[in-house]
Automatic annotation (TrEMBL):
It comes from Ruegeria sediminis. Residues 1-60 form the HTH lysR-type domain. The lineage of its organism: Bacteria, Pseudomonadati, Pseudomonadota, Alphaproteobacteria, Rhodobacterales. InterPro entries: HTH-type_LysR_regulators (IPR050950), LysR_HTH_N (IPR000847), LysR_subst-bd (IPR005119), WH-like_DNA-bd_sf (IPR036388), WH_DNA-bd_sf (IPR036390). It comes from the Bacteria. Gene3D superfamilies: Periplasmic binding protein-like II, Winged helix-like DNA-binding domain superfamily/Winged helix DNA-binding domain. Belongs to the LysR transcriptional regulatory family. Keywords: DNA-binding, Transcription, Transcription regulation. This is LysR family transcriptional regulator.
Amino acid sequence: MRFDLFSLSIFETVAELGSIARAAARHNIAASAASKRLSDLERLVGTPLLRRQRRGVSLTSAGEELLEHAKSIGRMVERMESEMGNHAQGIRGTIRVSANTSSITQFLPEDLAAFVKEHPNLHIQLVEQMSPDILDAVRSGAADLGIYSGFTDSTGVQSLLYRRDTLVIAAPREHRLAALDCVTFRDVLDEDFVALQQGSSIKNYLERQAHALGSEIRTRVEVMSFDGVRRMVQAKLGIAILPLGAVEPYLGSSELAMIPIDEAWAHRELRIAMRDRSMLTKQARTLLEFLSPEGA
């Protein structure tokens, strides 16, 4: 059976008013057209739905049962229209975000918590990845937005500023560097390094900077996370270059020292990538405008 929603709506109104003519007037159609729809509905269900009397109509037992179903369908349609309208207005839905460790460690938890508080019906699907993989996810459409290191080649995407952060040296407290006010990159190239795994934007960028100085980074240990880097540094297996926000909060409760880096590139950008801003969903555009100072 294929039921017509408009015919069911007319049937509901007829049941409410007890008159085909008055129901037709409410729906702005001719009484004959309403009567035809009701007759078609009765043929569809295979039994009379109305008792046609001189002073109006009343429902048969089948009509009474169909009325309950029609009301239930009407409520479902209203809810569907409301929810689809919320999607269309950008106040309900899922936003797929890929983000690097630096943004997740320093800024993103608080920013997303504030966003979700303002937009409780928007769901964030967050995946932590390395910056090159983030940009690949954005290019392929697997992510709506990607937060990545500005050190990374972003050919093929559009981007806006998210945050700025600063890279610093993390060293054991007893290390000779801990007594210095700041260092240049050349000053530390003879040290053993604790590094993030291959593919890290920081590691790749530092290797390029070392090559530009005619040197190489002496990587002693590679680990997966900032926490792993800090623990290896505390164990005196080497020094590390990390974002300020991954070092400063731990200085009071660890054996770490933090030394500023006197290089222009130590001040970097974290950026938000998208394949095409004009093609973003309203939900993703809402998050972009919330996170980026350039998003408005």
